[in-house]
Q: What sequence folds into this?
């Protein structure tokens, strides 16, 4: 069975500093990996995905994520945090075997401190 | 191009009543997924549908829950005889038909927040 772990419930970062939101996964075979962001009382917005190719994936709003197969990780990063980045971030995985469902982590609440 | 639409956005039901949640996928999308988010938790997969077909319902509770995606109209998630434990946010996502060139992203609606009194 596939699974995702987001080890940090809460991450606080000062505005202008780099941020990292951690994600590790477990899946049989090669993974498809996703990051979504959720603002209060809203749905999930797609940020970026990894399918194959370059390990560094660039996405929306200046976010990027690095796929590391040996560490089974897909950490979300941004070089300089904005207050508007404060939200709930979800990592998700899907395997390549035709199973369409996404398996989500429990989420990490990111707070950017002005 | 409108995104995924869900209605109602908020729904209040008393125990024992029925809840019907509707989802209209993005234009051109033929795949619909339903997820449930309990307070302070991540999203859990419930069911995956294509037009007139249930493809994967491995996440659906065995009783009281059903889903459909008719040829015409929105997808419906139906919960009969609701209980307090059904209180959650229910999200619908859609994706286009797979092209064979790679993975299609699921795009999410704003959700329906169900409160059972």
A:
């Amino acid at each position: 069975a596939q699974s995702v772990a987001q080890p940090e419930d809460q991450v606080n970062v000062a505005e202008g500093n780099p941020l990292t939101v951690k994600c590790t996964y477990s899946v049989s075979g090669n993974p498809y990996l996703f990051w979504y962001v959720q603002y209060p009382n809203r749905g999930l917005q797609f940020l970026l995905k990894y399918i194959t190719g370059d390990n560094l994936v660039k996405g929306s709003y200046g976010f990027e994520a690095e796929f590391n197969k040996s560490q089974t990780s897909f950490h979300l990063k941004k070089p300089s945090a904005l207050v508007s980045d404060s939200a709930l971030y979800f990592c998700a995985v899907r395997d390549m075997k035709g199973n369409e469902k996404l398996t989500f982590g429990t989420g990490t609440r990111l707070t950017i401190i002005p | 191009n409108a995104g995924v639409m869900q209605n109602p956005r908020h729904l209040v039901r008393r125990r024992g009543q029925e809840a019907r949640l509707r989802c209209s996928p993005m234009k051109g999308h033929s795949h619909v997924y339903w997820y449930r988010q309990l307070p302070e938790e991540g999203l859990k997969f419930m069911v995956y549908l294509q037009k007139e077909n249930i493809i994967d319902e491995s996440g659906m509770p065995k009783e009281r829950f059903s889903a459909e995606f008719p040829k015409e109209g929105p997808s419906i998630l139906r919960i009969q005889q609701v209980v307090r434990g059904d209180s959650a946010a229910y999200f619908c996502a859609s994706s286009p038909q797979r092209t064979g060139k790679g993975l299609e992203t699921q795009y999410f609606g704003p959700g329906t927040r169900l409160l059972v009194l």
